[in-house]
Amino acid sequence: MNDIRESVPWAARLEPKLLKSPWWIGHIPFAFELIGRQRPRILVELGTYSGSSFAAFCQAAEACGAGTKCYGVDLWEGDMHMGSFDEGLFREVSGYMAANHPQTAVLVRKDFNAAVGDFADGSVDFLHIDGTHTYEAVRNDFTTWLPKMSERGVVLFHDVNVTVENVGEPARHFGVRRFFDETKAAYPHAEFDHCYGLGVLVVGRGADPEVLALVESCRTQAWRDYFAARGGEISTRFANSGVKLPVHSAYGAAVPLWRRAANKARRILRRALDSARAA
Ligand SMILES: C[S@@+](CC[C@H](N)C(=O)[O-])C[C@H]1O[C@@H](n2cnc3c(N)ncnc32)[C@H](O)[C@@H]1O
Fold first, then answer.
1. Which atom of ligand 1 has the smallest separation from the CA of 24?
2. In this structure, which residue's CA is closest to atom 14 in ligand 1?
């Protein structure tokens, strides 16, 4: 373990500043190391929610000094797995990002399929897919965004290890494992089991040797154990912090139509105000 720690300076030394939910944060050390080595120019997250993964990406991007722009794409309305969000969640995330990562973080309040048009083909170095986790949604997210990936591109998939044993019946709606298994053989890849699993695909043909070396190393049990243990320290810190998780109402029928309409009107108004200010 000591030898591995010396080989992963970003994972060993950086400590996350924002921990808002438990489900992803065990992967922060791997994300720190990957970003430190890759120095992405454009990083995109599909599914930002309360910002734990996105803030960690911004933190690593700033620490490596690559001038990265990090885009967090989300409607902040919720989905079938998470429930329905109220407006306070978006206010909190956007306030945090404006205060802590003003030069790095850009929140894009759009559906993933609409946001893809904002990015040039071949421009995204790092993509994290963590939206709706059905097989169809994950396949759609990957295939829609793949043309945007650069020659250096890496794609992460959260929730490749969601099972009936670790989350109960809702696991039957998750299809990330199936999609990752169908796709991974075409690319250099690695995967982690802890914290509901993370799949890593190196989709760019000109990936940085340091990134390829990291992914290759993470195919060994010793490196996976290192990242699981380092991630476990962060999960324990969160568990001891007393942070309360928001309770969301059910998504779908229970979401009043007026709230969706009001959210949409607010977004249109905000965009109009932004354009007026920019003009
Ligand atoms: C699992 S959460 C993301 C968790 C986050 N990465 C973290 O670390 O806390 C999934 C998010 O994806 C968003 N989402 C799902 N499908 C979407 C879509 N098609 N377009 C925009 N946002 C979507 C939901 O609003 C939700 O906030």
1. 8
2. 131
Q: Contact 75/110 with Cβ under 8 angstroms?
A: yes
Half-sphere exposure for 98 (CA within 13 Å, toward CB): 6
- Residue 67 falls in which region: left (phi positive, over 0), alpha (psi -120 to 50) or beta: left
Name the residue at shortest CA distance from atom 25 of ligand 1: 78
Provide the b/e sequence for 167-206 (b: ≥16 CB within 10 Å): beeebeebbbbebbeebbeebbbbbbebbbbbbbbbbbee
163: left (phi over 0), alpha (psi -120 to 50) or beta: beta
Give the model confidence (pLDDT) of 104-116 as tens digits. 999 999 999 999 9
Mutate to test the pocket of ligand 1, among 79, 127, 140, 264 (most ligand atoms within 8 A of CB): 79
Is the per-residue pLDDT at 51 higher than 50? yes
> Can you tell me the distance from the alpha carbon of 234 to that of 26, in angstroms, rounded to the nearest whole number?
6
Domains, the chain, in order of start with CATH, read 2-248 (3.40.50.150)
Tens digit of pLDDT for each residue in 164-195? 999 898 889 999 999 999 999 999 999 999 99
Reduced to 3 states (helix: H, G, I; strand: E, B; else coil), residue 205 is: coil
How many angstroms separate the alpha carbon of residue 73 from the centre of ligand 1?
A: 8
Counting from 1 in the atom list of ligand 1, the atom nearest the Cα of 110 is 21
Q: Could you tell me the two tokens for 32?
A: 């720190």
- 3-class SS at 84? strand
In angstroms, the CA 28 to CA 49 distance is 16
Q: How far is it, in rounded angstroms, from Cα 172 to Cα 186?
A: 26
